[in-house]
Amino acid sequence: MSMPSGMNSLIDRAPCGFISVDDNGIIAYVNSTLLDLLGWQRHELQGKPIETILPVASRIFYQTHVFPLLRMQGTVAEVYFSLHTRSGQAVPILANGVRRQQEDQAINDCVLIPINQRIQYEDEMLRSKKKAEAAISAQKQAEATVEQQYQRAVMLGQITQHIRQSLELTQIFAVAAQDVRQCLDADRVGIFKFAGNPEIGGGCFVSEAVAPGQAAIVVAGVEHRGLGDHYLGIRHYGGTLAIRDLREVNLQAEHHALLEQFQVRACLLVPLLKGSDLWGLICIHQCSGPRYWQTVEIELVEAIAGQLAIAIHQGDLVNQLQQELHDRQRAEARLTRINTELQQATSQLERLAHTDPLTQIANRRRFGERLASEWSRLSRDRLPLSLLLFDVDYFKSYNDTYGHQQGDDCLYAIAQAAQSAVGRSTDLLARYGGEEFAVILPNTGSQGAITVAQRIHQAVAALNLPHQASAVSDRLTISLGISTLLPTPDLTSSELIQQADQALYRAKHRGRHCTVVFAPDLADDGDAATVFYTRSNLE
Question: Mean pLDDT throughout 28-43?
């Protein structure tokens, strides 16, 4: 922490704890007083997360209350939470903090006072005050007033502590209403929230505490619109409205009937503010008879109203954070959905980019990519790679005889039949061009390739497509060439294609409707391993 060495020394020897934390929750400085209180060494805390000295409940309170207030308002006052010592013992403390800018980052400085020390200071001060007042026997009434103030202060501390034990407004209001009723010995205490314009007065009781034998307004489900009178009275008097006897006050008939229904004789109304706006009222009813509201009672309820105003503000912050979290989760879910749709669209585009639109099998582009990939892989693994090239016999005559639409249907049927004959998921059938097809058979020798070629011949024959313009059969047939190589760095996949193409050419030269396996002497028009498939064989 950057500050003059003299100032640093004073802070280090201060009677109260002092800690500086950056916006990432990292402890930048901690004084010796706090180190002694918690039993830590300086090097064990500085540069460590603030969570190191925060119990679980205090971590949540720090993240949802203390830090948001420092970040948004620049200061936080009279905040209660706990730290834990190096041995794990919880130490309740009272914190006051301020936010400052140090170079290019924000630093949050907090003064920490153990609650037991604060209580000791307050107790000593109050005892001294009580002894001083007691010394003046002529001022017995003043003694009683001070004693009453003391009791109210203790009650305020207890009620405030109860209020700060929860983050849920519903629970906070319920606790506050019950504590105020017991503290003032009132018949009914309610927390009233205006629904809109306080001038109109519409709203409802969001929480209520009633004495035994008294009717509950919340349970009765009554609509409350007459409290606009109360608001007008508060505005006229500039704050709290204390009515000793309602029978002495002129009220609208509607509101008078409502108070009569619940036997209200006296009431104390204290405004609840949200910032500078009127949010609601603390309504205290006395039903047994008129009641003179003492100043100390009014001040107590006003102080509680101040604490509830902080709770309302903090509740808004919590709701805002929850809403932001909800919005962020929705945005993340939407982003995830969009990413999924994008991935699906990308996959679809990729599939379309690699699919022949007529035959719905792999296209020439996909064939080239797959052949290069398998050639590289099998070259490393030193395994064989076979390639089949086949086309439809006399396909031009087929188109001239049956038409181009029938020709397209024929190519689709052959592609689907050949696809069913290929078998393995690692094999690839592709349209090589026009009526010509190619089959990539990884890790397959010549004999395996011949077996696949035979299945393709049989699948095409099973289609039983007529071809009156064919010179080899009255049914549609194919010619097929096979090449098998062991990929090496000295060879390229182009040689595999050239060999299969030469074998296909030889199959056509020998009368079509057959399979020819490439042999080195094919180029010299020598013999080659040839397998013929005629219609009579297949039947």
Answer: 91
